[in-house]
Amino acid sequence: MNLRPRAISVTLAIGLLTTMGVAQAERALIEPSQIQEALTIETAIEAQSATAAPTDTAWYAVLKGSTPVLITAPHATKPYREGSYRFSDGAGTAALAKLLNTLTCATVIYTQYRSPSDPNYYDDNAFKAEVAELIKQHKPKLLIDLHGSSTSRPYDVDFGTMEGTSLLSRTDIVPSLRKALRKEGLRNFSDDYFPAAKHPTLTRFASSLGVPSVQLEINSTWLLPSQGDIYAQRFSQLLQGLTRYIRNTNDTENGACRAGGV
Hints:
Layout: H1 6-19, H2 32-47, E1 60-63, E2 67-73, E3 80-81, E4 84-85, H3 92-104, E5 106-111, H4 126-138, E6 142-149, E7 157-160, H5 173-182, E8 189-191, H6 202-208, E9 213-219, H7 229-249
Helix pairs in contact: 2-3, 3-7, 5-7
């Protein structure tokens, strides 16, 4: 009896699996050194979250890029709202934004010291003015506003779109984001639990300037690289999902960007 060579059998098996819808996995993008960098950023910004910016330093940081995506993290530090400083969403949102600048060359802006005016609650502040200028200069096709949500929430990510209004008819954005994140292990999604519609949010602000916008309320268990172990892996998965989404939707091969802060 003639037996087929093992190599042919393996090839046929792979072909059969592909036919059945079991696609070959993509090679991982994120390196441990990048998560170590995120840990360093998170730790440094968390330490100054409640501190006023030095007189010669802005309370927010901007990293410019060439990809037509603008990423904001307005609650990485404690924001001032209605007479007092509130809790922050955690410096992991700033770490995520900064790594996305490096990996995709998206332009990012995040708070690095306590905010004298909540950028996601008031329009009349320097952060919002900077966002308006970045939109004018870079003409982004999408704004992604990053937030950390309570660990008690049942979802991994809630997509806030003002009930779809802030997407400006770009109905592809949320399904594509879901698909990219699901491939990296995020599973539980929610739509418009926090719709970004009640107050002068960044999502509302950017969409009023003609930029399709989405607010991501990310369960904070995905935003704690400094906790190590499974938390570092979860941050890596989240970072990889957003990196792939931005690269794939903007036709960038490696997206690497080393633009400095401004």
